[in-house]
Design a protein that fits this description.
The protein has helices spanning 20-34, 49-62, 79-90, 104-113, and strands at 42-45, 67-69, 96-99, 125-128, 138-142. The protein has 143 residues and is α/β, with parallel strands linked by helices. The N and C termini lie close together (9 Å).
C-alpha cells in the first residue's frame, strides 16, 4: 500500500505528514480491502511519518495487527533490500501488508509481476507471491 496524500510542504520530505484528505483516502481503501476478507498478519511499514500514520489507520480498521518498522521500504531504498526484508517477515506468515512510498512501490510491483501499475496515493496492490523473484507473481487486484 502506498501512503495517503501527504503535506506538500515540510522541513524535509522525510517529515511530511498525512493530510486530512490523505487519511480519508487510506480509510476508504482499507474499507474496500475488507470486502476481500484477507487475514493480514503483519504490517511492514516505512518509518516516515506519512507511512506510519497510514499504518495506524490500517491497524485501526483491521483490528490490532503487529507492526514492524523498516528502512527497507523508504523512498530511497532498493528493491533488493525490500525483497530481503519481505523474506524475513514472511517466515510463517501467509499475508502481510507493506506500507511504503513511490517510487519504491511501483518498482516492486514491476519487479515482482512485470506489470507497470500506476500506484496513486492510498492505493494498494494485492500480489500473489509464491516466491519473491522477478516477474513470478501476479496482481490479484488493485484498490
Amino acid at each position: 500500500m502506498r501512503h495517503g496524500e501527504a503535506e506538500s510542504q515540510a522541513a524535509s520530505d522525510y517529515e511530511r505528514r498525512l493530510t486530512d484528505h490523505g487519511a480519508r483516502q487510506v480509510a476508504a481503501s482499507v474499507r474496500r480491502l475488507l470486502t476481500y476478507e484477507f487475514n493480514i498478519e503483519l504490517l511492514l511499514v516505512s518509518p516516515l511519518p506519512r507511512a506510519r500514520e497510514t499504518a495506524d489507520i490500517v491497524d485501526g480498521l483491521l483490528g490490532p495487527v503487529p507492526m514492524v518498522v523498516s528502512d527497507a521500504v523508504t523512498p530511497d531504498a532498493t528493491v533488493a533490500g525490500a525483497i530481503e526484508a519481505f523474506e524475513r517477515q514472511f517466515k510463517g506468515r501467509d499475508c502481510i501488508m507493506v506500507v511504503m512510498h513511490q517510487p519504491m512501490i511501483g518498482s516492486l510491483v514491476y519487479y515482482l509481476t512485470g506489470v507497470r501499475q500506476p500506484m496513486p496515493t492510498a492505493s494498494l496492490a494485492v500480489i500473489e507471491a509464491p516466491v519473491l523473484t522477478s516477474d513470478c507473481c501476479s496482481v490479484e487486484c488493485v484498490i
